[in-house]
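To assess whether the prediction recovers the assembly geometry, we first specified each molecular entity separately, as shown.
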Amino acid sequence: MTEHADPATMPYRPRATLRDVAAMAGVSMKTVSRVVNGENGVTPQKVDAVRQAISRLDYRPNLSASALRRSSGRTAAIGTVLEDLANPFSSALLRAVEDVANEKRVLILAGSVDEDQQRERALVRAFTERRVDGLIVAPVGEDQGYLRAEMEAGTPLVFVDRQPQGLLADCVLSDNESGARQAVHRLADVGHRRIAYLGDLALIPTAEQRFAGYQRALLERGLPLDPAHVVHDLHTVDDAARATTALLRGLGDGNGPTAIFASQNLVTIGAITALQDLGLEDSVALIGFDDFPLADLLKPRVSVIAQNPSEMGRVAAELLFQRLDGDRGRPQRILLPTTTVLRGSGEIPPAVP
Amino acid sequence: MTEHADPATMPYRPRATLRDVAAMAGVSMKTVSRVVNGENGVTPQKVDAVRQAISRLDYRPNLSASALRRSSGRTAAIGTVLEDLANPFSSALLRAVEDVANEKRVLILAGSVDEDQQRERALVRAFTERRVDGLIVAPVGEDQGYLRAEMEAGTPLVFVDRQPQGLLADCVLSDNESGARQAVHRLADVGHRRIAYLGDLALIPTAEQRFAGYQRALLERGLPLDPAHVVHDLHTVDDAARATTALLRGLGDGNGPTAIFASQNLVTIGAITALQDLGLEDSVALIGFDDFPLADLLKPRVSVIAQNPSEMGRVAAELLFQRLDGDRGRPQRILLPTTTVLRGSGEIPPAVP
DNA sequence: ACGCAGCTTGACAATGTTGTCAACGGCGGC
DNA sequence: GCCGCCGTTGACAACATTGTCAAGCTGCGT
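The predicted structure of the complete assembly is given in tokenized form:
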């Protein structure tokens, strides 16, 4: 057990500083600094002496102090404000950001907002107080104007998933409207004329855009927009399941929808749950917006309009680092295409009357 | 468009410091510091003047400088080293850590290691160089002794998911062996005598423990351990799918396994893919270790031994904060129980010969 | 008038680091 | 013998902030 240390009795050894290393190596602090930062102009003997002292003392440079003093002031960390680190969309995006940042040896501070404006602001504030070099934000509040001060201070800012309001800045978005339009067109292609819309909170811009795409496609196909087939403000699996059940139960014969467009991940899953409970999963068509793991193992396999959260994260991070490298060009608005993935559930034809 | 600022032409205004605020408010820096930190002993007029200057200058305190000077030296940030931020286990754990940290107004630095020892060390180093107040680590390397220096320096450390080696420290783990044992017992309960084991990389301690549980249960049931029914080192969905196919195809009639225990998330999914491809999903029983989203929407619904990553994160974070609050007790090893969730796939009986 | 207590306030040092610059000793060129 | 140059080195100030402490003020009691 000698290799095990017991914290209760573990000797407390405060962190060594440059000063300690310098004292042990018998050189000035500046010389240690030079060795640590790999600057040249130090004789090999001194380098050795310093190296030895460093490892003997388990010296770890203090990056905060370093950043404070350095002219650039860079902390080599960026902040990432996302909807919910536990959901697959956010976490895939985060991971992609991490991969880009990692190449630049930059760390990631991350936080979830859960659709809470207060939290968005609190997180941004906490990040900037730590002087992150840049921010990636999936905005949730109705106004991002409060971020102007950060931009003016030179902290680059890239928005993802949703367009910021009250501030012109780089952003990377899915082409929500076009994706939703595609979905409805595909359903119409197999003959559906009564296509329901199940949507997220109507005030979320992405939900709005997807609804716009839905409406546009109906118009293009000359299909009527039946208010009874439109449900907004579904935000959880249970919400969606209940709404789906209501929609299909309440069908005055021949008037119920024969296909469903679910405008979001959790809504899609809720709809599937309901369809399975009603035994209708093979008779009502379904296309969901946003892919999800295992969609292709369900029966029927679930057709989706896939977003690409990794790509979104990658592109956003790369944009951010371009800005950090000095790019002062006009702010960009990058629209990522969606992919229509037909797996089965979207190709179910309407029942012949 | 007046509310839109264009970064290309946006005025650059460097961040205001305490000094700037003090100058504008006509007081000393110390007084500003007092106001910012809510200390009392400042007349209301001065407080007002300072507040005004702060908002006029968009002053943001510099927490790095603050931490540097403060006696505690706390940075109000913790580092979290996980397997892969994009996988559901890691991200649920991270989210739970975030929730606990959030209450204490502590931020999270996060990174993925991808089974790479180098990366584990690099991340820990990067975190400690930023003087995080504590670390939560899902260790991947074979020796965590290198962390002793950090512990001695007073940085609390909690391991999750896997036990550290070469270092005695707090850790929070799932009861892998018992969970795996349960799984095999449940399969034996419905009559299976040829139960295959599909395992992750054998050198991962959790995989080892799960295999131990599998072996133990076989022993307890008096079932033979058939090497042909044991496959190790599966780490991806594809690996697992191939292995499953091979296992079931290669069945000399009457010798193939009638049930499968899949020791990990991705392996379970791979096995399901293969079973579906072979049309055997309703005839070969399956229990997977670790729950996954939508397991209860598949057909058959997938039985699992569920871990509780959120709970793991929550408990680990709380332990960490206890240590930060000064608890110097002996290091704890917390075993979280698993839950057996029988949904259908695990209750399929063996085909009658 | 004086001393003293209590509150407010600011000067100064310190945190751990790096940028600036001058000093050092040795050397070749005048 | 002196100048200037070289590579190396360290003294010092600075970064943004907070802890310490003494000075300043008011009002009170004597």
